[in-house]
């Protein structure tokens, strides 16, 4: 099971990397309204990956669930150090929980457009912050899993 969890975490980290390549445009300026060009680039990306890429956009959710299941199976098997698997599970749950509770909804809203530039700027910055947190916790879980893969 560590190999399955590691593969899932690696996939999720790769997806986050691609997201962050667009999100980083929202990092500067740190306040105020972002330019229309920046909003258009970020919103266009999120429109594509959250809405128009169906059914492929569902793959990320499937991998999230499969990764959590693999980590739970690791706990049940009791072959790996308990603290490593539990820490991996907690890290992954934080990332998946944040994505499910806020980030995806914000990305869909940003991708739809319709809000004024101030709201879209706030959404873009919120997505950036969420993805930085998600990348950190998923990377931490991946490092732990890599330590136990045989």
Brief digest:
With 150 residues, the protein is an all-alpha fold. It has helices at 2-23, 36-52, 58-77, 82-112, 117-148.
Low-confidence spans: none
Taken as a percent bin, the fraction of beta residues is under 5%
Number of domains: 1
Shape summary: elongated
The chain-level structural class is: mainly alpha
Approximate helicity band = over 70%
Largest sheet: none
Overall pLDDT level? 92
How many extended strands? 0
User: Could you spell the SSE succession in H and E letters?
Assistant: HHHHH
Radius of gyration: 17 Å
Helix count from the secondary structure assignment: 5
N- and C-termini, Cα separation: 10 Å
Q: Please, could you describe this protein's structure?
A:
With about 150 residues, the protein is an all-alpha fold. It has one domain (about 1-150). The protein contains five helices and no strands. The protein has helices at about 1-25, 35-50, 60-75, 80-110, 115-150. It starts with a helix and ends with a helix. The model has no long low-confidence stretch (mean pLDDT about 90).
Topology:
Blueprint: H1 2-23, H2 36-52, H3 58-77, H4 82-112, H5 117-148
Helix pairs in contact: 1-3, 1-5, 2-4, 2-5, 3-4, 4-5
